[in-house]
Amino acid sequence: MRKLIYNEAELMIELIKTPKRVTLLMEQQPGKVCETGLAVGDKVKRGQKVGEAPDASTPSIHSPIAGEVKETIPALTPEGHHTTAVVIEGGEADSEPTRGDENFLSSSAEELRSRLLEAGVGALGFKGTACFAPPLSVKVEREIETLIISAIDEEPILILNQQIVREHNDELRTGVELVRRVTGAKKVVVATTPALKPKVGEHAVAIEPVYPNALPQMLIWRITGRPVYNSKEANDKGYAVLSAETVVSMVRALRDGIPVMEKVVTVQVEASGPRNLRVPIGTPLFGVLKAVGCTLAQGDRVIMGGPMRGMAQFDPHMPVTKSTDAIVHQRGHGVTRYLDMACIGCGACVKVCPMKIQVDMMTRYCEYSLLDNAKSYDLDACIECGLCAFVCRAKRPLLQFILFAKNEIQRQEEELLEA
Amino acid sequence: MKDPMLTVSPAPHWHIGKTFTKDSYYTIMALIPALIMGVINYGKGSLGVVGLSVFSAMATEALMQAVMRRPITIHDGNALLIGLLLSFLLPAGAPWWLVVVGTSVAMIVGKQLYGGLGSNPFNPVLVGWIIIRISWKLEMDVDASLVDVASVSGLSPLASLRAGVFELGLRDVMLGRIVGSVGSASLLILLAGVVLGALKVIKWEVSVSFLVGAFLASLLLGPKLFTELNPGSISPITFIFVGHIMLGAFFLAPDNPSSPVNTVGRYLYGFLAGFMAIVIRVYSSYPDGGVIFAIMLLNLSSPLLDRIRPKAVGKA
After folding, report:
1. Domain around A176
2. ipTM
3. Which strand ranges, in their side-by-side order, compose the sheet holding A204-206?
4. CA angle centred on B102, ends B242 and B288, rounded to 5°
5. Which residue in A111, B68, B115, B206 is deepest, having the highest Cβ count within 10 Å?
6. Among chain B residues, CA nearest to A343
7. Parallel, antiparallel, or unpaired: how do β-strands A67-76 and A61-62 relate?
8. B-contacting residues of A 106-145, CB under 8 Å?
9. In DSSP terms, which residues pair with A75 in a beta bridge?
10. Residue in B117, B266, B306 closest to A342 by CB
11. Which residue of B has its CA nearest to A332?
12. First vs last Cα of chain B: how many Å apart?
């Protein structure tokens, strides 16, 4: 099979024009919901807190532009959750004074954690990293044995974390120390591509740059040599994964006093190579695409996240969140279409599955909601890499069947708890 | 300005580009040299058998799907392939009605009644062949039906082996210059199969283990054909180039829905099918049906073989 190789090119991170209007979702990362204390008409400064965290495991949200609150409306997140959005429209350039601290490493871990929470630092990046990340703002109950900082991007065309390592090398080196302090991890390693290894230094471990090696569960397996069954087992065994971007943003928040207001995003537009952009959080999709010279046409597909695991969006106004790693644009005539076809039993999915699941039977059970049978065929072991659907000769939407079954199981468990 | 409508679909948003339909057409293309050889050996009559078989397979599928109010899928190449493979198993002089009955049974009983492509537990080609072979012994007999059409005549190699008059060279056997069915050019089928296996279009594990099984069985059981009354010998190589062993190894046994999915299962399935083919050829009253009955039996046990599966990574 043709392997999916990670992009290892060097690609400068470009700034884009600050948008006049941003939409700040109160759920920036799946499951981490903030509340806003602002009302329509309130003036907002750049860097001012907009979303207040209800607990110590949720990072707060800050406005990337100065202006006025236009409206607070119900909205959907890129993952499809219902939440509130605060819309801010630009006015005079007015920003909060920053309070940097050069000697932040001498502060206590307790103090560092509360400052990180205040600056809105959480695990940055699309769904994968979030569930394996330690909550940076609270003391971790279970001691962390190995903390992996991932300087490889999860999916093939993405190159943001690698580029951040190139451009913010000092911050990353400081960050390794910082992360060790904040999380109390016994061992911190940086997972990199072979090409980037010398740049990172002593903590680096090179990973073969083949998809899906950079997915959190695979990283843990490749680095510790022991596979974990799911994120819960990873927590129990004391493994955690953070993206390099998260670590750099921690250092910037503490040293320079800049809260998280921007996200680096790899933008791939059809018929041109990828570009790295530093995008203010809350910029709508079409704004980002316009910055790289792409106008949307009828029937196009816009994906938030990578091509293998990202979510296709229906709304061109969907704002960039702290979880957005990539925006991929495909012209309508070239989009992959799935078919409603029975499995033909060719076995390509079984051969490609990194977790050695018998995918053909498992997804048949998922398709017809036979959840117990699906579990007995190792549904829980699935890391949702999507390689099975990628190679499927019958073009069955296998990843969708798996996600559907996992969602059903979760829903049923929640109903049981309520009853 | 009105926003454009965007396409929404589940991840992943890339596809490798290999599809079942493409695989079917590659397989058909690979069989064309063997088909040409068949026409050279057995005359224009064989072309008629092949054409009718392909046409009637596709027509039956379209008719069945129309009756069942399902989408018509004759463009996916599967019906074409089934028709082609079935005609390879028929004698060049087969009467038209035999071909039509064979292909319709293959398409209706073998494929559509089970729910169409992917749901068939047996290879439809085998179902069609077995029904007509058992029902019309005389018309399916290559020795008798070739008398009028072919330049070659006499007994088929398998029949002559039993009668003790086998005198063909390996070269004739490989190129199909024998009394046999349309797809007798074993060497060309072997080459086509090797190409398809290298391209991973077919389940190459099945093909390799099938040949190994057949070779071992030939080595062990080949001499059993000869008695004091019927002295002689045949090398195992010639023995597996005779009949449908090559067609079975590369085109009938690795049929996707009816063969196992897991690697261990594939090797076992292929090996047992190949071994069984020779056992049936040597001992049964259907020497020409060895490959077909063997693969049919193994089709039946393929769900069982698929229970041998690797443990998922990380599972306790």
Report:
1. 104-256
2. 0.88
3. A204-206, A187-192, A146-150, A239-243
4. 20
5. B206
6. B118
7. unpaired
8. none
9. A83
10. B117
11. B7
12. 57
Chosen from B13, B22, B76, B306 to mutate, greatest number of chain A CBs within 10 A = B13
Token readout for A386 is 């999507």
Q: What does CATH list as the number for B20-301? A: 1.10.3430
Tell me how far apart the terminal alpha carbons of chain A are, to the nearest angstrom: 48
Selecting from A344, A355, A399 the residue whose C-beta is nearest the C-beta of B10 gives A399
> Quick one: chain B helix, strand, coil %, rounded to 5?
65, 0, 35
Is residue B1 within 8 angstroms of chain A, CB to CB? no
Residue contact A393–B3, C-beta within 8 A: no
Binned at pLDDT 50, 70 and 90, residue B270 comes out as very high
One domain for residues A246 and A356: no
- How far is the C-alpha of B104 from the C-alpha of B94, rounded, in Å? 15
Q: What is the C-alpha separation between B312 and B316, in angstroms, rounded?
A: 9
CB contact under 8 A, A227 and B313: yes
Asked whether the beta carbons of A86 and A36 are under 8 A apart, the reply is yes
- Packed helices B78-88 and B124-135: angle between N→C axes, nearest 10 degrees: 40
Please indicate, yes or no, whether residues A251 and A112 belong to a single structural domain of this protein.
yes
Three-state SS at A33: strand
| CA–CA dist A328, A275 (Å, integer) | 11
Task: Note whether A70 and A89 are within 8 A (CB).
Answer: yes
Whether residues A251 and A130 share a domain: the answer is yes
C-alpha to C-alpha distance for A220 and B314, rounded to whole angstroms:
11
Give the total number of structural domains in chain A. 2
Q: Point out the domain boundary residue: A235, A256, A277.
A: A256
> How many angstroms from the chain centroid is the CA of residue A397?
23
The kind and range of the H/E element at A15 are strand A13-15
Domain-embedded: residue A328? no
pLDDT values of chain A reduced to their tens digit, one per residue, 419 residues: 567 888 888 888 998 888 889 999 998 888 788 888 888 888 888 888 888 888 777 888 999 999 899 999 999 998 888 999 999 998 666 677 777 777 787 888 888 888 888 888 877 765 544 456 666 666 667 788 888 998 988 888 889 999 999 999 988 999 898 888 888 888 999 999 988 888 887 888 999 999 888 888 888 899 988 888 777 788 888 888 888 898 898 898 888 888 888 899 999 987 778 899 999 999 999 899 998 888 888 889 999 988 999 899 999 999 999 889 899 999 888 778 899 889 999 999 999 999 999 999 999 999 999 999 999 998 988 888 999 999 999 999 999 999 999 999 999 999 999 88
Instruction: Break chain B into its structural domains and give their ranges.
Output: 20-301
Tell me the C-alpha distance between B298 and B24, whole Å: 22
Q: What is the CATH number of the domain that holds A195?
A: 3.40.50.11540
The DSSP-derived string for A288-328 is HHHHTT----TT-EEEES-TTT-EEES-TTPBP-TT--EEE
Provide the shortest C-alpha distance from residue B257 to chain A (in Å): 5
Residue recorded with tokens 């950079």? A214
CA–CA min distance A405, chain B (Å) = 14
Interface residue A268 vs chain B (CB under 8 A): no
Query: Is A345 an interface residue toward B (CB < 8 Å)?
Result: yes
Q: Among A256, A271, A293, where does a domain finish?
A: A256
C-alpha distance from residue A209 to each of A116, A191, A202, A282 (Å): 31, 11, 19, 31
Closest residue in chain A to residue B15, using alpha carbons only: A390
CA atoms within 13 A on the CB side of B236: 14
| Assigned domain for A378 exists | yes
Phi, psi of A167 (to 5 degrees): -85, -25
